[in-house]
Amino acid sequence: MSKELEKSIEILKNGGTIIYPTDTIWGIGCDATDAIAVAKIYKIKKRTESKSLIVLVDSWEMLENYISHIPAKVSCIINGSSKPTSVIYNDPRGLAKNVIATDNTVAIRIVNNDFCKKLIHKFGKPIVSTSANISGKIAPKNFDTIDKSLLHKADYIVNLQLEKNQSTASQIIRIDSKGKIEFIRK
Predict the structure, then answer these.
(1) Cα–Cα–Cα angle for 7, 12, 131, nearest 5°?
(2) 2-185 CATH
(3) Per-residue pLDDT tens over the stretch 8-53
(4) How far is the C-alpha of 34 from the C-alpha of 31, rounded, in Å?
(5) Domain locations in the chain?
(6) Under a CB-based contact definition with an 8 Å cutoff, are residues 57 and 111 in contact?
(7) Burial class, 161, CB count within 10 angstroms (exposed 0-12 / middle 13-18 / buried 19+)
């Protein structure tokens, strides 16, 4: 795994894109603070920039660097959920503008996957995570179902195909100003 971490970090530091296993499904990622790298993700996926992307962090501490107000309920929801959970936060800071939705929100997930956690920690910044598919197509359940055209467009493919992941996308929630939880994707 250490070789894959080193190579992935090198690619990310140079503004590149990677295809990698996450705690949910195989994703396409890049440095979430690099607008040019984020634009590459949109181009690879043939996705309009009006559709925002999920960002991964390795810890609560990293999350606090990019989100100034974390609702109190978030900790209970994430710790009490059996599914990986991405939370939509208001007013992010320090992220690439094109990773942030037009309403000034961003979905962020604290990862549980060993590879992702180590990758983000060693990289020192959040990374983008969007399913390794062409926009509108079915998300890949495993590495073998990733559209082959994507494999040629990414700068690096992490060679950990045997690593287990859940094969389903994360749930996405939003907490409104009154503390009510809205499920965007279950």
Answers:
(1) 100
(2) 3.90.870.10
(3) 999 999 999 999 988 888 899 999 999 999 999 999 998 888 778 9
(4) 6
(5) 2-185
(6) yes
(7) exposed
